Amino acid sequence: MTTRPYIVGNWKMHGTRAMLAEARAIDRAAERLLKVEVAIAPPFTLIHATRKEATLIAIGAQDCHPADGGAHTGDISAAMVKDAGAGFTIVGHSERRANHGESNELVKRKAHAAIDAGMSVIVCVGETEAERDSGKAASVVTRQLNGSLPDGDEVADKVTVAYEPVWAIGTGRTPTPDDIADMHRHIRKVLEKAYGDAGSEVRILYGGSVKPENAAELLSADEVGGALVGGASLSAESFLGIIMAAAEDERE
Ligand code: 13P
Predict the structure, then answer these.
(1) Pocket of ligand 1, candidates 228, 239, 242: which has the most ligand atoms within 8 Å of its Cβ, to mutate?
(2) Is residue 100 annotated as part of the catalytic site, yes or no?
(3) Which of 62, 150, 213, 248 is the most exposed, having the fewest neighbouring CB atoms within 10 Å of its CB?
(4) What DSSP letter does each residue of 65-108 carry, written as one string?
């Protein structure tokens, strides 16, 4: 990849204000690792405070509602997370697809809402273990992409795709680098079909049990433009281990 590797921490439902020290430490260290683009997606409640603590890295949300506003108790609009300091939002994470029944069509509407609000998006896709075992991984991911990606070549530069096999999330298991490369090359083809030439520039991240120990190997797979990191992004020490592996990769 010619662009800088993009390493994004998804804090999921972790973190109170005590976690701001980790964000500060990550931000300070990122100053010395400019070859890598670093971002954190804290819970909604910490977006504003994290934005104030961290001056260099990008801050994003983990989700947004597709509507501009209205009677949606407990939901947060794209404009609200943008106003709190988010520059991007994750949409379609498998935990939201599973826990909240989010459809591809809903994920697409969320992506458009985020882009309309002036943010970029990380659209997550990935197969379950049963789908992989039955040889359906590529077709499942194709269907998710075709249903979830925001429409129009002009939005391609606002889109990042994260390939996160559901069975690799939080399990300590990962696909082989060859399997990741195969899927990422497949995703590239789908992106080029969806967005034409602009599809060749969209970054494709790998996510699922990325740790400092395996980051170099996973990031070196073909078409891997970075990583979406859950558990290992919760401490500055382990997240920085991954960021440093990405910086090394870039030097080679
Ligand atoms: P883990 O890194 O904890 O496996 O989580 C991956 C993920 O879901 C990031 O969005």
Answers:
(1) 228
(2) no
(3) 213
(4) BSSSSSS-TT--BHHHHHHHT-SEEEE--HHHHHHS---HHHHH
What does each of the 252 residues of the chain score in pLDDT, given as a tens digit?
Answer: 457 999 999 999 999 999 999 999 999 999 898 899 999 999 999 999 999 999 999 999 999 999 999 999 999 999 999 999 999 999 999 999 999 999 999 999 999 999 999 999 999 999 999 999 999 999 999 999 999 999 999 999 999 999 999 999 999 999 999 999 999 999 999 999 999 999 999 999 999 999 999 999 999 999 999 999 999 999 999 999 999 999 987 544
Say if CB 224 and CB 205 are below 8 A apart: yes
Tell me the backbone φ, ψ of residue 165, rounded to 5 degrees: -60, 130
Q: Which CATH architecture has domain 6-247?
A: Alpha-Beta Barrel (3.20)
208 touches ligand 1 (CB under 6 Å): yes
- Output the CA 102–ligand 1 centroid distance in Å: 18
Q: What are the boundaries of each domain within the chain?
A: 6-247
With both helix axes pointing from N to C terminus, report the angle between 104-116 and 137-148 in degrees, rounded to the nearest 10. Answer: 40
Report residue 135 as tokens.
């040889």
